Amino acid sequence: EVHVVESGGGLVQPGGSLRLSCAASGFSFRTYDMQWVRQAPGKGLEWVSSINSGGSGTSYRDSVKGRFTISRDNAKNTLYLQLDSLKTEDTGMYYCAQDFKNPNPKIRGRGTQVTVSS
């Protein structure tokens, strides 16, 4: 059974940083492309960033390019998202999921809340 646990969220001021983690189990993590999606209050899921199975290819939505960095450690079955220069519009629940640039993936974890506010 696919199982993911997101962590690392919190409350930060605009301009701050966070590092999100996603611990995966129940599937062959190293063979799957992975991504982060988020959901702002009252809105639908929004694709944020993806990374291919080997970690050599990444993609970002335009609004986070240059501020967010996705990475993975296949030896630890863990996906990461470094969030820098955070803006209030980055506020939302962040989820990790299988797939690459899928705006509506199957959500299997509880997510981790990121709140950017002064």
H and E order: EEEEEEEEEE
Count, helices: 0
Shape assignment? globular
Uncertain parts: none
Largest sheet: 6 strands, mixed
Overall strand count: 10
Could you tell me the strand content as a percent range? Answer: over 45%
Oligomer: single chain
**Strand sequence of the main sheet, in spatial order?**
2-10-9-4-5-6
**Class by alpha and beta content:** mainly beta
Fraction in helix = under 10%
First and last CA, distance = 40 Å
Radius of gyration: 13 Å
Mean pLDDT: 96
Question: Can you offer a commentary on this structure?
Answer:
The chain is mainly beta. It contains no helices and 10 strands. The chain is globular and about 40 Å long. The termini are far apart. The mean pLDDT is 96.
Question: What order do the helices and strands come in, and which of them pair?
Answer:
Elements: E1 3-7, E2 10-12, E3 18-25, E4 34-39, E5 45-51, E6 58-60, E7 68-73, E8 78-83, E9 92-98, E10 112-116
Parallel strand pairs: 2-10
Antiparallel strand pairs: 1-3, 3-8, 4-5, 4-9, 5-6, 7-8, 9-10
Task: Based on the model shown, name its key terms.
mainly beta; 6-stranded mixed sheet; about 0% helix
